[in-house]
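Why does this matter for the project? Reviewers at the last site visit asked to see concrete outputs rather than summary tables. In response, this paragraph embeds two records directly. Each consists of the residue sequence and, immediately after it, the corresponding structure tokens. Nothing has been edited or filtered.
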Amino acid sequence: MTRPAVPSAVSPAVSPHASAIASPTATPPGTLDRAGLAGLVPHRGTMLLLDRLERWDGTRIRCLASDHRTPSHPLRSGSGLLAPAAIEMAAQAMALHGALTAMAAGLAASPGYLASVRGVEFACWRLDTLDPEPLAIEAERQAGDGDRILYAFTVTHGTAPIARGRAAVVLNTPVVGTPAVIPSPLASSPLAALPPDTPSA
């Protein structure tokens, strides 16, 4: 199928890479349920798209998300839950990874924002048409310093990859007042213009 292009210099949401909620003196857990995730990332309510942390180490993280078929999903449009929503799921996994690695090092997590996504490929048009099996979100830190971290991410359904790409997270971003919302690929992607029953092939 033709894979839609995603703008390479926009964020799917203003997604802090790591949360100041995390305690630098705590021992990071190996797994977490949804309630535990809410204590480590800034997302709340339905905008917390992850349901479980399965495993992580210093470079990788794997999480699950199971609400992709929910009619009230916060990223769902009139055309359904479009594939670029997987980018926000990956961004939240990266934020969680930043909080956990900072905690493991005895440091406070650095605030940061998703600056760009590149090389993104989708294997489907919509996520809400997939069966109820949870989506697996994996991110791997490929490089980084005190100002920026580069991740590769993959979102799979069962054994089939449905989204993958690379993301750059800018750290230590000063926050003055209310941050401006960066345009979302969910609005600018050609997927957003599809009627609900448009075939994906």
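We now turn to the second protein, recorded in exactly the same manner.
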Amino acid sequence: MNQRHCATCLRTAVPVEVKKVRCNVRQFRDRTFELWRCVGCQSLHCEKVDDLASYYANYPIREQTLDAFVRSWYRVILRRLLAAGLRKDHRVLDYGCNQGLFLQFMAEQGYARCVGYDPYVEAYRAAQVLEQRYDFVVSLDVIEHDADPRAFLQKLVALLAPGGALCVETPNAEGILLKESEEYLHAIHAPYHEHILSQRGLEQLIAEQGLVNVAFYDRWYMDSWLPGAARKLFERLMLLAGNDLDSGYEKPRFDLFWRHPSLIFYLFFGYFLPSQKRDHMMVIARPRTASSTAAVATTTRRMRPSNGSDSALHRA
């Protein structure tokens, strides 16, 4: 087996694991892509695809709208940002904002100083927003799409105002079992996810930029108590509908509820039976100071409430 170069930890070595995985978008479901795991940091990497732009031409995620379910998931993010010190007078940048749904949600909640940037969306590609500095820089499910995660993170950190906070949400390679790739197909999302960082890899990149973690969450924000918004429900629905990403953005198939009564239970109570998967992570970090360094060295606590609420590793 040939040696590979890890874009996360920069180690060149023989991968510890290699597997072909199918695309989870219906149009390309018959195409498979090679994924390999770094022996050092455990990050996952997808084979390079020369015509990657063609895969985004009819990207299902662009069909998402700001409905009640999406709002319930964004409330999870907002709670985490508030716990990290977000105030309504803070300047917030959503980097890689896609269609701007999170910006719309934040505006509804009274956060008037939120702006977005996305070089692939006409409404948000104005580079002027990158000339400002922000109290919070948020990047939700973006870094894994970038060809150079280290350079991407450097861009985000450069946009922080003094004392500002960085929030990165991304899949966690350490929680993805390649041998059960169909179960983790949407976190893998080949070939769209070029580099899936491990927790170890992401924290290494953050530390290299002089930041220290304020909080680490290993429960996916797309898991809410609102009936119909539990991860347990929508992942099961997608699996029964063929396990393609497209089905998550189409009208629900009510026939599946009659054929699989457990879905009705998950509809109302799925949130309180949280998934045991740890294939997503959210890190909130701030610039390292003498006081924060001392606090990290002496105070580390993990909270995993049994009632299904948010769990976080706080480093105060």
